[in-house]
Amino acid sequence: MTKLPRYLLRIVGLGSQIVIMLGLTLVSAAAKDGRDVYDDTCVRCHGLLQEQTSWHQFIPADGTTVDLAVVTPQGPTLNGIVGRPAGIIEGYTYSKGMRAFAETDAVWDRATLDLFLTDSRKFVKGTFMILKLGDDDRALVLDYLERVAVYRP
Ligand code: HEC
């Protein structure tokens, strides 16, 4: 009576370890996509992407218009960032460096985003955002942004 449950417990214990190991293998084998990179790296400062047709407004089925929050806890929204001119989010106080960059009529296209995410402070001197993203993550997150965050003024 005392031996059997202990024996069973060991099997159950071993079983769950194997299940956990299998789980880890599955997680690491599952391909990471750009949304994962965005959620892991950008969301805490830039907030969720609304993935809507307009970068600043959401039009529900009843036809009313809801303005989306454009200032997130730490950074400007990235809704519609691909093709968006730099530094245009009203109500967000950009750094001097980003304002100077915006004055050159800079636009966030794939090339400028790529350079910015490679080494943000090297590309935009004096920016508040400090980030260096590796090649793979950069390519993934740029694919994602091109899918869901195209500028439609
Ligand atoms: C630690 C917070 C933080 C993280 C993480 C972060 N950012 Fe930023 N980001 C900022 C801040 C703050 C600014 C405003 C910079 C300034 O004014 O110099 C900014 C600005 C930007 C801009 C310029 C926006 C505009 O309106 O011109 C882009 C593009 C951008 N971030 C992309 C990203 C992407 C993509 C990621 C994830 C890969 C990311 N950021 C991660 C804080 C962050």
Give a quick set of tags describing it.
153 residues, mainly alpha, Cytochrome Bc1 Complex, Chain D, domain 2, two-stranded antiparallel sheet, two-stranded antiparallel ribbon, 6 helices, 49% helix, 5% strand, binds heme C
Characterization of the model:
With 153 residues, this protein is mainly alpha-helical. It folds into 2 domains: 1-30; 32-148, Cytochrome c-like domain (Cytochrome Bc1 Complex, Chain D, domain 2). The chain contains 6 helices and 4 strands. The chain has a two-stranded antiparallel ribbon with strand order 1-2. Helix 2 crosses helix 6 and helix 4 packs antiparallel against helix 6. It is globular, with a radius of gyration of 22 Å. Residues 7-16 and 18-26 have low confidence and may be disordered. Heme C binds next to helix 2, helix 3 and helix 4.
Detail the topology: elements first, then pairings:
Blueprint: H1 3-29, H2 34-46, E1 57-58, E2 66-67, E3 84-85, H3 96-103, E4 107-108, H4 110-118, H5 120-123, H6 135-148
Antiparallel strand pairs: 1-2, 3-4
Helix pairs in contact: 2-6, 4-6
Helix vs. strand class: mainly alpha
Are there runs of 5+ residues with pLDDT below 50, and where? 7-16, 18-26
How helix-rich are the residues, as a percent range? Answer: 40-55%
**Structure annotation, total helices:** 6
What fold name goes in the CATH topology slot of the largest domain? Answer: Cytochrome Bc1 Complex, Chain D, domain 2
CATH class of the largest domain: Mainly Alpha
**CATH architecture type of the largest domain:** Orthogonal Bundle
Average pLDDT figure: 79
Strands, total number: 4
Distance between the termini: 74 Å
Compressed to H and E, one letter per element, the order equals HHEEEHEHHH
The coarse overall form would be globular
